[in-house]
Amino acid sequence: MKYFGFIKEHDDYEISNNINELIVDNNPIDNNKDLILQYLQKGIMAIPIMGCVENAKDPLFGTDNYNDETFIAYNMIYSDGVWLWPQYIIEYIKKYPNIKLNTEFVSHVFNNKNRGINLSDEECLKIEKDFYKTFWK
Fold first, then answer.
1. In degrees to the nearest 10, what's the CA dihedral of 90, 25, 21, 77?
2. Distance CA 123, CA 46 (A)
């Protein structure tokens, strides 16, 4: 399985990136952003994780002093059977269009943009089990 869009401030896995490495004000906006968003939104929810995610770019992130405006997404993970991504990356891409996109994932989207995403319940269960075995030891 390959991983896209995991942010260390939300998911401290070895595949996660720091938010300030991904969202830099002078990053150019990737011309493929809209295509990537469309593809991400077609994903199948494979791993439900209880909770929600606050905006890690908010100055009050990580404090108990927050409000509903810092909410960015529910904490769940989607898949196309090859890649996994958290729901929150969709909202970060919408909110911060200059976010750095993984070039390997962008290529994957281009090669599969016209293909439907279909995962059975059994496939999702296997993805979930493999994910937990890998990251929640």
1. -10
2. 8
